[in-house]
Amino acid sequence: MTSTRHLIGLLLGTEEDWPAAFEEILRRLGPVDGPDGDTHDFDCERITIEPFRLRYHPRYHLVIDRLAYWYYVPREWLKKVAMMDDVYLLNSPFTFQSMEKHAAYCAMMRLGLKVPETVLVPYKNPVDNARYAYTAARYNQPFDLDAIAQQIGYPLFMKPYDGGAWRGVSRINNPAQLHAAYDASGEMLMHLQKAVDYDVFARSLSIGAETMVMKFQPDQPMHLRYAVEHDFLSPEAGAEVVTIGRLVNAFFKWEFNSCETLVKGGEVYPIDYANACPDVALTSLHYYFPWAMKALVKWCVFALVTGRQAKLDLETDRYFAIAAETGMSYGEKLAAYRALADAYFETERYEDFCATRLPGLDQIVLDWVTGPDFDRLLVRTVQSVYPAHEHDKFIAHLRGLLHLWVRDESTRLAAA
Ligand SMILES: Nc1ncnc2c1ncn2[C@@H]1O[C@H](COP(=O)(O)OP(=O)(O)O)[C@@H](O)[C@H]1O
Ligand SMILES: [Mg+2]
Question: Which residues are in the CB-under-5-Å shell of ion ligand 2?
């Protein structure tokens, strides 16, 4: 019997809550016996930014990235370790920075998903390039913004083609708002998209082969956006939301992503699913935080112990072949996509791995969340996120939601 050590790197910005949780769960989990009879140990380190030789060999076997979407030094380091060293990444910049919201819309439209009608319009302001004036004068066709909006139909949304975090998003009800929003878009490249007047907003968070579908309330402040409500979708719509999230992730090889879908009268409309650096803060996920941390640990351990290989190429053909089938209904295509996505994520093997190799983890996490260490993390997090006069309120709020999780999880484990 041999023992293998795996080093997990965390690429972090300002957050302290989820990394502390991740490190603690991994520590409490301890060594894992692999299916190969070997023992696997896990270390976790926070990665620092420094000059690097392109030919150097990194020590990390897997990296979780929450930084490279805005800080380009680690982004270029991630590209190097993906291209040269086969480091397993959540997520690879090759699949993620090159595939922003617009590309994701195009792909899922081709697969027949119900992405609302969307039009890309040219920049409002000139592009900062000496060649722009000549090129635009020669090749930019004049266009009628009102006619485009009319064709899509009001209300609609104007939002950046590569958006995130609600930057530059506006809901538009009439031509005056349309022009005001376009004038304000300046140097941003914008989509116009038909608004869906939805019954329910379902946001799913996927980590590897696991997906949590949550009821989302976008108009609420951050700490109230995820509602704790089970069965808020019909079983069919719930399954479709899971399938869409998993399909998007398998298609782009995103391992850690959130997917926004609007549900109206049983139809599921995906609107935002290129969030490959998703928010997993304790203060926003609250009740769902233990699930997310556990899923992240399980997926990393699974990938490392089973020697899962990261792939850089997207292999889109098999998906497009299903999309092109004329005899298949939407439901049949979804089922076929789901089979591909589950094969990509090795869902069955993952579930079997968790059941046989990590049987104690549920109890470990429950004990931790029930105990004083977790409460200290909760208090520390609130103190670092909110102003002093709000500490008591948010500590009570989060404790209440986590107690609820402890109660539900205890019931679930007792019944299992
Ligand atoms: N087509 C749409 N129909 C209804 N609401 C939308 C639509 N597009 C965007 N929204 C609303 O605007 C918010 C931000 O848009 P989104 O596409 O998610 O951009 P971001 O990437 O900035 O989150 C969404 O969470 C949703 O509330
Ligand atoms: Mg969004």
Answer: 260, 272
